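Lecture 7 notes: from sequence to structure.
We start with the chain below.
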Amino acid sequence: MKAIGFKTSLPIEETNSFIQFEKEIPQPTQRQLLVKIEAVSVNPVDYKIRQNSLKEQVSDEPKIIGWDAVGVVEAVGDNVSLFNVGDRVFYAGDLNKAGSNQEFQLVDERIVGCAPRQLSTEEIAALPLTALTAYEILFDRMRLSKTKDEGKSILIIGGAGGVGSIAIQIAKQVLGLQVIATASRENSVDWCKKMGADVVVNHKNLVADMKAAGYDQVNYILDFVDVNQYWDAFVVLIKPQGQIGSISDPTGPVNLRQLKGKSVSFHWELMFTRSMFETDDMEQQHTILNTIANWVDEGIISSTLTTTLHGLSVESLKEAHRQLESGTTIGKLVIKF
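Predicted structure tokens for the same chain:
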């Protein structure tokens, strides 16, 4: 089968930043599924790992990345109980395993969901990683619920990005929160409003713009951009006994002592934690993805697809990484095989 990978970390413009190669189709064991992939989406984690995982070293075997896929189950391991051959599935995969930039992939059934029925292949591929991340930070980390939180306020940093786009929808449509999102360009402001944000503020003057919009403080803050850059603003804007959640990679210490006076809780979210450590509740990701699929099929949330490239090739992956590295993408970019 065909696969795309890299043997060393190079700038995307370099000839060998991605290479195409052939490999044997693997066979599933235990709880693994063998999935014939129809489309993948590309996320910031992809280019970050491409840039950093093989710095100043050359691997004997190409490293395959990619953490989002939709496809059809071709074969199952002996202990599989959740799926059958022929099932259409979607998933975000496991950082410790070969990724989805290949024609067939092995994936543990516990982190796989039944694909939505009402969307196109590329619309489905846009969902898994960002939807899992948004769901986990809101429900598993911050433990929000419509029963106790409806009508409360949430500030979402990076509303037009992949995770932000889904988080806005879940916060508004499922939890019934007042949603304030950050964006600075006209097209990203419009996108946040399309996703359901009640108010959009400029992240460049966050505290002042929040006050101008009528929000001195909010109950909850989600950071999908840079926790260090906005930390001082978060300390000012969070209400006493509020909660802050982040997925960003801090470049320096985060001063949690500044939250003590307000008894504010802080939460990290990494969507790969369950699969990386094979946690006791690893199968929760199967349940979450099925929930997301139901919400999509019921029209509660929509896909955040904005750009589709075609073909599993070095050229399409390079173009996808170029666009994401620009920092100006809105929603999700998908490659349809």
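Points to note: The longest strand covers residues 32-42. The chain has eleven helices and 15 strands.
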